[in-house]
Design goal:
The structure is a single chain. This protein is mostly helical and 72 residues long. It is built from three helices and no strands. It is 35% helix and 0% strand. It is globular and about 30 Å long. It binds iron/sulfur cluster (SF4).
Length: 72
């Protein structure tokens, strides 16, 4: 089942506001933003540390970086 991420409206990745948006951005949006946000690095950090603490250059597929950021 797919569920839209609650952060769609404010997320700079979904809003194409990040520098160096990857060519695969649309695939990532389908996979994470409109699919399973529980695996998204940005969502994981925003949930654990707050939206204001999500690095502006963190991409959804950087799961390991997210784990380090939240100390796991
Ligand atoms: S990049 Fe992550 S946090 Fe942002 S809208 Fe997509 S799933 Fe949500």
């Amino acid at each position: 089942m797919s569920v839209d991420c609650p952060n769609l409206k404010t997320c700079i990745f979904f809003q194409d506001k990040m520098k160096n948006m990857p060519a695969t951005a649309n695939l990532m949006k389908n996979r994470y933003c409109l699919g399973d946000n529980s695996q998204c690095a940005r969502f994981i950090v925003s949930k654990a540390l707050g939206k204001e603490n999500v690095p502006s250059d963190l991409f959804p597929n950087q799961y390991e970086r997210a784990m380090k950021l939240i100390g796991k």
